[in-house]
UniProtKB/TrEMBL annotation, chains A, B:
Transmembrane segments: 6-23, 30-49, 55-72, 84-105, 111-133, 145-168, 180-202, 223-253, 273-294, 301-322, 362-381
Keyword Transmembrane helix attributed: yes
InterPro entries xrefs: Cation/H_exchanger_TM, Na+/solute_symporter_sf, NAD(P)-bd_dom_sf, RCK_N
Pfam families per UniProt: Na_H_Exchanger (PF00999), TrkA_N (PF02254)
GO molecular function: antiporter activity
Domain Cation/H+ exchanger transmembrane: 14-386
Membrane topology type: Multi-pass membrane protein
GO BP annotations listed: potassium ion transport; proton transmembrane transport; sodium ion transport
A Gene Ontology term for the protein's cellular component: membrane
Protein name: Kef-type K+ transport system, membrane component KefB
Subcellular location: Membrane
Taxonomy of the source species: Bacteria, Pseudomonadati, Bacteroidota, Flavobacteriia, Flavobacteriales
Length: 595, 595
């Protein structure tokens, strides 16, 4: 039995870190750098590192933890809400390349089992760079982005379910009816047990631990590891692969089972350990198994599989996307966006190689296919979305919509009126009178303490897109924003900061709450509240003639006129968004301010 | 090459978790349960699990991460401040059992190398239950507690240095002068490089990353793993054991290198991964290597080594402790408290076994020695400290002393006056006038924003024992306490909470700041500040005749008299502590309140 091999682990981790950081700089996901550096330092090129027990075991443990983490990040409630369009894209983008991949392999002499593996591998979708590329291309608020995200999630789940069915037959080989029934029975038992465990037993464990005031994060971490390893082993016992059990375990470790804060903390630890330590070892060593000879010996098959991956994914998406009524051009954009392959594909290909179902050549081709398709995503997606943009067919969409505003003072209500034109607006205030006043003006208002989870639940805060803290008290604004950030995910948090209000109000804290400043600068809102209260203000709308940063616009106007408070920016379609720091006002957008 | 062995990993982790949880309930450290359950489920008894590559590699990785974590927890500044008494106890408690252990082994026919290993193993000190047992025995504030903590840290460091010197000779075998010089040169080079890296290069990396606004926790985690593995491998290359490199890496990952919050976060991740996952695998599998036959075949040696461990540690401590002038009885208490062995001993014994320096019998004896000595600590320490208590020789001591009070209002100054009788008191206020007023009354006061790190540094907040937030603003109190808790370690945090002050003020947040309520109940302090300001109050001192909880005392008085604010509790030696929730007032202690 070999001992712990620090040297190779160090070299592999260092290479993964360096390559991941470099590739992320040019906008690609770390996994691409990890695969490439694995090919480079591995036996096929430089031969700097050879695989060892340590690398194998750490990377296999990493895959288990990674799949659990991927499961944790999938929210079935979100999947349920996923649009019809996302479902169509996912199915079309899976089924067509899956079928094509299967036929390519079987028609070129591969086994049908190898065909199924390659089919899954070309069918899988990975959001090439998660939201990063969508941010870079300014797509985050478009319908395409939501279709892509829903599509990738559904596709992952679909691929894993099919892989589940498939993997259970791997070890059996000969397949007759009674064996199929036995296997199917075992699988059904597994999922029945896992579901019962996840929906009934796990929440009870959570409640029991909460009732005993166990708050030690390490205890929860160990417990969740046990659940992940336990379900993983159980999956192996019924003939499924361990990664499926880990994935299912991750899916059930969700909101409501433990304290929200504990769940969030532990998810981050799983992220750190898998993405920051063990999974990169897997992806680099996956590169070790790649042989460059395929470019000579199997170039045709390589081109064929890559071609099938491209054509199947993109055309399949376009085709199945037609019934959505969103047009084939948007389908094309979605198809190009879903063309990347990543972690799940490499994991499945690795299992195929390990079990001897696919050859090293096919494995190498699948790795290059992942690299090439992922490389294509930013290029093709830029083309297709620019095309849509030019034709005016880039449709905006918000899955989380609406604004939650803390503080129902007159200024907040004025802002709320603007925002409510296109979106849900919900107020929270601890003052009963202010809340009633807001209700009289037709708003929803929850009367309660923002720092209590019950208030957040009553206001369904977590379904909102924006959290705005607009009280006169810096500390409340900061604390509320931090509290919301600690236990929920809300994409945008804007808070009012008053200048020189003594203690509190440190801008440093903004980053820990990942919030930015409403109105784009420190403002004492008390006088503004008074002005609005007394109707002693004038609302002005100006059209911007040249793109400008929100901060610069305020600075420019401050230099001329000190008494101006920008409320919202109106985009060209008429939609209003709060005026805040670190935003940019495009040409022809309007600013509405009061003075 | 074996693949990843989930089943055995699951069984071992589950056993570790269960046994650790059980043994912690009766006040012992988890490692004791892990060793015992390892003996039980391992080959020597039930034979449920056998060792596998997965277990070996995960446990060796765990030892590396554990040693890095132990290094992170050692603060050389604290070591520098460690008392003369602690140093004496550590040296005496190490040298005497070390020598005795060495002679027992060599005189019974063991090699001198085995003698040195056993010497280190019996010499090591582990604080059996860290602070847990000290809390249970009510010793946390005594001089003994500080001597014990300093002693254990020094002893760990001492043991590792001697082990460093020793381990470099293991692989060489024959020892002549030129070889010794070569080895010594390599070791010096290693430590010179590690020190230069830790003191000069690492802080620069930290600054560079801060300057590039890299705040991604996972990036830092991977970086620290690379540093730990890198120094660990470097140590191996110069002939030292990898655990030394990991330990040294941990020591240098300290305050000031990275953002305090990042360092704290990453330290917790190392804690979760080592203590919550990998290290327990090591300790359980250590139990696998134990043979119960030693009770038959080597009972004499077993008794001899356990006897030497007890007698050497306790008598050595008593003897060397005499020059401290704290008396031999206190030395005896310190000796019994330092009698436990734990992680470091098992790690060193494991290395000895792995390298073939000690036999499986000696290894088993060392494991039993760890179990027995650790079991003895609570019993013996209870006896010896009760004896001291009865003789009135249990001396109190605070290493972190003093109170930092946020808010320099008249009520705060009144509380400060009481606390300043025996301790340093420092005020922080953002209001210049209040701060000057405090200075006029002879207090130190830092004028600044509590939420900025510069203010905390100016006030040297981290050297204080107690943080008291006494402003009229709930949110400032909470936010400040949370901020202090996020970036520093301050043992006690007490904050004022006003009732029904609208938003904010949720008791829920107290736990996330690990603070408790000053005055033991929600109080609106504004009227009290006014009363003190106008000298319109009366100070009353009452002696308590029966032990009572602070909350109950307040409830009892509230039912009779609503206008009373308890300030401090005076213990029998005349020392005053702030009146707060979740404290108990002993018989003959006094309460000073105002009305």
């Amino acid at each position: 039995m070999e001992g712990f091999d620090i040297l190779n682990l160090f070299i592999v981790l260092l290479s993964a870190w360096g390559a991941g950081a470099l590739i992320k700089r040019i906008g690609y996901p770390a996994i691409l750098g990890e695969l490439l550096v694995g090919v480079i330092i591995g036996p096929s090129l430089l031969g700097l590192v050879e695989t060892s027990s340590t690398l194998v075991i750490i990377s296999e443990a990493g895959v288990i933890l990674l799949m659990a983490y991927i499961g944790m990040e999938i929210n079935f409630k979100d999947l349920g809400k996923a649009s019809w369009a996302g479902l169509l894209a996912a199915i079309g983008g899976f089924v067509v390349p899956f079928a094509l991949g299967y036929y390519v392999v079987t028609l070129t002499g591969g086994t049908s089992m190898a065909g199924l593996f390659v089919g899954i591998a070309v069918g899988v979708t990975s959001l090439a760079t998660k939201s990063r590329i969508l941010v870079d291309l300014g797509l985050l608020d478009t319908r395409i982005a939501y279709v892509l995200m829903a599509g990738a999630l559904i596709s992952d789940t679909l691929a894993l379910i099919i892989f589940a069915g498939l993997s259970s037959f791997i070890d059996v080989g000969a397949v007759n009816m009674s064996e199929i029934l036995l296997i199917a029975g075992k699988i059904i038992l597994f999922f029945a047990f896992a579901t019962a465990f996840g929906l009934y037993i796990l929440p009870r464990i959570g409640k029991w631990m909460a009732s005993r005031n166990i708050e030690n994060r390490t205890t929860y971490f160990t417990l969740l590891l046990l659940i992940v390893f336990g379900l993983s082993e159980l999956a192996e016992l019924v003939g499924l692969h361990g990664i499926l059990g880990a994935f299912v375990a991750g899916v059930f470790i969700k909101d409501g089972v433990f304290h929200d804060k504990i769940t969030k903390d532990i998810t981050r630890v799983f992220h750190d350990v898998s993405i920051g330590f063990m999974a990169p070892i897997f992806f680099v060593t996956a590169g070790f198994h790649v042989t460059l000879d395929v470019f000579k010996t199997d170039l045709q098959l390589l081109l064929l599989i890559v071609g099938v991956a491209f054509a199947g994914k993109i055309l399949g998406t376009v085709l199945f996307y037609l019934p959505s009524g969103n047009g084939w051009r948007e389908g094309l954009a979605v198809g190009t966006g879903m063309n990347g392959r990543g972690a799940v594909e490499i994991v499945i290909a690795g299992i195929g190689l390990q079990k001897g179902i696919i050859t090293q050549e096919i494995f190498s081709i699948l790795v290059f296919m992942a690299i090439i398709t992922t490389l294509s995503v930013p290029l093709l997606l830029t083309w297709t979305t620019n095309w849509l943009k030019k034709r005016g067919e880039l449709v905006k969409q918000f899955s989380r919509q609406g604004h939650i505003i803390l503080g129902a003072n007159p200024l907040a209500l004025l802002l709320g009126k603007h925002l409510a034109e296109a979106n849900k607006v919900m107020f929270i205030d601890a003052n009963k009178g202010l809340c009633e006043n807001a209700r009289n003006q037709g708003f929803d208002c929850v009367h309660g303490n923002i720092l209590e989870e019950s208030t957040l639940n009553e206001a369904s805060v977590k379904d909102f897109r924006t959290f705005i803290a607009l009280t006169v008290n810096n500390e409340i604004n900061l604390l509320a924003s931090q509290f919301v950030n600690d236990i929920l995910f809300i994409p945008e948090k804007f808070i009012v900061i008053s200048p020189n209000k003594g203690e509190g109000g440190s801008i440093n804290l903004l980053s820990s709450a990942s919030a930015s400043t409403l109105f784009s600068s420190k403002v004492d809102i008390q006088p503004w509240i008074q002005k609005v209260q007394d109707s002693n203000y004038k609302e002005v709308e100006v059209t911007i003639t040249k793109q400008i940063d929100t901060r610069d616009w305020v600075k420019f106007h401050e230099s001329k006129n000190n008494t101006l408070l920008p409320l919202v920016i109106v985009d060209r379609s008429g939609t209003k968004r709060p005026y805040r720091y670190n935003d940019s006002i495009d040409m022809n957008e309007k600013v509405i301010y009061i003075e």
